[in-house]
Specification:
Blueprint (H helix, E strand, L loop, with lengths): L21 E2 L16 E2 L6 E3 L5 E4 L10 E5 L6 E10 L5 E9 L10 E10 L16 E8 L7 E10 L6 E10 L7 E14 L15 H10 L13 H6 L9 H10 L13
Length: about 280
């Protein structure tokens, strides 16, 4: 049986990044599968791939959710075999992580009987193994089923995992997108777009109201300045969660782009609009 397949807890979320929640920026590189560029192109840039490399690529052959390309996965022509992509990031006990992806069952190559696609959040220890030594659903792995042969065709559907708490011993958090082929080993593909993976920062609303007093004012500006790195200095793994939250464009820096959003929220003595950071 495919070794990465395990039971888990999945939650279907509509509007996963609502205005009342504060998330760090999307940590994923190439989340929309826009590189390499090509009608059908391999390998999938900036993702770690596993399984038969001939069973996945980026493609322009179906209508994307956004951008110009999507990820296509199929096969790999053995029962319970899997093909997929991952990205992994430093994490720590007590952090909470969320993920999202858009999936499509396209009539040009519909998913066959027994085939399904899963998105997972996995928590790994310092040697990149499962925290605690074995996979345990709801503890070190969380998953949601995003597509199978029964998925409506020619529609982009959004699926999310929220929220997954990192257990004791966590050193890394990993996002996994995997297509699995169950019996009778039928054909068809899943198409994915606009993946998202991030740490839950807190419940400041908006994120720049660091002291939660209903205003974005001089006290919040002081907190922003304390976190400011500029574009050339990346945020460290141990930076305070509130600082990570201020990285609104997910470029691993607190810089002028983030300050532009802060200025949009600055309210001084007036009540702040909670949606100003959206």
């Amino acid at each position: 049986m495919f070794h990465r397949l395990c039971a888990g807890v999945g939650v279907f979320l509509v509007g996963l990044m609502g205005p009342s929640d504060a998330w760090a920026g999307n940590l994923l590189a190439n989340p929309g599968f826009e590189t390499p560029i090509g009608l059908d192109a391999q390998p999938v840039a900036q993702w770690t791939e596993f399984g038969d490399p001939s069973t996945r690529w980026v493609t322009q052959r179906v209508t994307p959710y956004s951008g110009g390309q999507v990820l296509k996965m199929f096969g790999p022509w053995d029962i319970w075999g899997g093909t997929g992509v991952t990205q992994v990031f430093a994490a720590a006990e007590g952090q909470t992580w969320i993920a999202r992806v858009y999936a499509r069952n396209d009539s040009s190559d519909p998913m066959g009987v027994g085939n399904f696609c899963v998105m997972k959040i996995e928590f790994l220890d310092a040697v990149m193994g499962p925290v605690g030594g074995t996979w345990l659903a709801g503890v070190n792995v969380y998953e949601v089923w995003v597509a199978d042969e029964a998925t409506p065709r020619d529609e982009w559907l959004g699926f999310g995992l929220g929220t997954a708490p990192a257990p004791a011993g966590t050193a890394f958090a990993q996002l996994v997108l995997v297509e699995v082929q169950g019996p009778p080993v039928d054909g068809g593909s899943v198409f994915l777009d606009d993946a998202f993976f991030s740490q839950l920062c807190g419940m400041h609303d908006p994120v720049f109201d660091v002291n939660d007093d209903g205003f974005v004012d001089a006290q919040d500006l002081d907190a922003f300045v304390a976190c400011y790195t500029g574009p050339a200095i990346p945020l460290g793994d141990t930076v305070a969660p509130d600082c990570k939250c201020l990285d609104r464009n997910g470029d691993n820096a607190i810089d002028q782009q983030d300050f532009g959003l802060f200025q949009r929220c600055y309210s001084a003595v007036e009540a702040v609009d909670p949606a100003c950071d959206g």
